[in-house]
Amino acid sequence: MTKSSAVLFILIFSLIFKLEELRAALVLVVVLIAGGLFMFTYKSTQFNAEGFALVLGASFIGGIRWTLTQMLLQKAELGLQNPVDTMFHLQPLMLLGLFPLFAVFEGLHLSTSEKIFRFQDTGLLLRVLGSLFLGGILAFGLGFSEFLLVSRTSSLTLSIAGIFKEVCTLLLAAHLLGDQISLLNWLGFALCLSGISLHIALKALHSRGDSGPKPLKGLGSNPDLELLLRTSQPEEKDNEEEEGYFVAQGQQ
């Protein structure tokens, strides 16, 4: 339920950095999705203050992360429109940030594990390395698709796509694991889908408006065209003079 606030933080930072314009329809989309997801995941549970603070802080930092990522990807001066270029520059920094945590929490366990460094069964080692390789490929594909989506659309669209994934996960949990869904949960599901559908419709209308015919600018407003016209005018005069000369010679 606390995680549903991520889309709100992304909207706030998008407005702060002027990546999105404040529109009533956009606010309505975010409120419908966040409120619907909150209602869809609402249930009686034990409240934990530490967990609440961690998840809320993660949502806050996630909003900053994806907003700044959108600024990097959509700023032409940086030349990072290609998702592969972005991953090439960001992944080493992410590795430096995660490696100390890995070394503290998992380094000792991994170094003494019989599955990798102290292996005795070669088949087991190959299966573990194959699983790691497959996970790396999937992680690369996920990061590539996320950066590509942000570069072509916005961080808000990425967040909404992630919420749709979470809704599908909850529905599968209810169908396969037998989780109980109340009337309030179904109402939240309907609100969440309404917000997602509204966002898709607004994006379609906006892209259709951008692809329409655009008015042509005057020739005088383009300095390159002005220079081209100025250089072509003497050539036209020279051609007219040559044509007049040959006509006169033919008449003689």
TrEMBL record:
InterPro entries tied to this protein: Sugar_P_trans_dom, TPT_transporter
The keyword GTP-binding belongs to this UniProt entry's keyword annotation: no
Membrane-topology descriptor: Multi-pass membrane protein
Organism domain of life: Eukaryota
Membrane-spanning parts: 21-40, 52-73, 93-112, 124-144, 156-177, 183-202
Subcellular location(s) per record: Membrane
Primary subcellular site in the record, as a coarse category: membrane
Domain (Sugar phosphate transporter): residue spans on this chain: 3-198
Keywords, sorted A to Z: Membrane, Transmembrane, Transmembrane helix
Protein name: Solute carrier family 35 member C2 isoform X5
Organism (species): Balaenoptera acutorostrata
GN (gene name): SLC35C2
